[in-house]
Amino acid sequence: MRRALPFFFVAFLVAAGSPHAQEAIVTAKAETPPAPPANAPPLMLPRHPQFDDEGAPLVGPCGAVGAVHDGIAEKPDKKVHGEVFAGVGTAGYREIGGAVCIPVGDHGAVSIAVDYGHIGR
Predict the structure, then answer these.
(1) Does any domain span residue 67?
(2) Exposed (0-12), middle (13-18) or buried (19+): which is 18, by Cβ within 10 Å?
(3) Per residue in 85-111, pLDDT tens?
(4) Which residues span the domain enclosing 87?
(5) pLDDT digits 0-9 by tens, 40-86
(6) Does 114 map to a domain?
(7) Which of 14, 39, 68, 100 stands the most exposed, by the fewest C-beta atoms within 10 Å?
(8) 112 phi/psi in degrees, rounded to 5
(9) Domain count, the chain
(10) Cβ-contact 120, 92 below 8 angstroms
(11) In a domain, 3, yes or no
């Protein structure tokens, strides 16, 4: 029986034949919509009355800077901002890390983040 097993295996592979590919299924039309005319006005969406950008806070390199008062923006915040996070779990899950953002000049920043994680026992 052990000598016949390889024979039956080869015979099965030969009888099974090779897979046959099917033809492609068309999922989209061959036509493309026409392009808008060159002199068409740009798409303008109506503004919602409750959402107004006037007086919105400016964003600095490490977060919000402040509002605009009488057309003059507040100075960028020069303080270091950051966060510390930790995770605990069952079956040995641990995680600890932190991130810091240090402003450089009025428009630049250096960001550093460190993370350690451990999964398993």
Answers:
(1) no
(2) exposed
(3) 999 987 788 999 999 998 887 778 899
(4) 76-121
(5) 777 776 766 666 655 555 666 777 666 666 666 666 677 888 999 99
(6) yes
(7) 39
(8) -130, 135
(9) 1
(10) yes
(11) no
